[in-house]
Amino acid sequence: MAGAAALAFVATRPAIPPGLGWTVVGLNVVSGLGCLGVTATDLISLTTFGTAFMIVGAAVAAVYAALEYTGLRRTIEAGDSRTAEAR
Questions:
Q1: Domain of life of the organism in this record (predicted)?
Q2: Which terminus in the chain has less CB density within 10 A, N or C?
């Protein structure tokens, strides 16, 4: 819930500071790696469904991170005024 609240906060900003954007990308990468880490180790005993769920979760987090990274890079490179205002 805290993550959703943080994303809602970022999304409601009139100008998204690049630092916040990079934080969101980084947290998605960490989330994906965490899902894979839990799956690869025996920290938590997972059923077959649990293992599949964690792998899908890692894939979703990776896709989000890639899309956010691409969007953020394009915004910064284009000199979008919404990002420039936040600098």
A1: Bacteria
A2: N
Q: Longest Cα pair distance anywhere in the chain, in angstroms?
A: 48
CA of 64: how far to CAs of 19, 48, 85, in Å? 17, 24, 25
Count the domains in the chain.
1
Query: Tens digit of pLDDT for each residue in 11-51?
Result: 888 877 888 889 989 999 999 999 999 999 988 999 999 99
H helix intervals, 41-80: 48-78
Give 15-44 as a 3 state SS string: CCCHHHHHHHHHHHHHHHHHHHHHHHCCCC
Query: Are 77 and 12 contacting, i.e. CB atoms less than 8 angstroms apart?
Result: no
For residue 60, the enclosing domain spans: 2-86
Instruction: Estimate the crossing angle of helix 48-78 against helix 18-40, to 10 degrees.
Output: 160
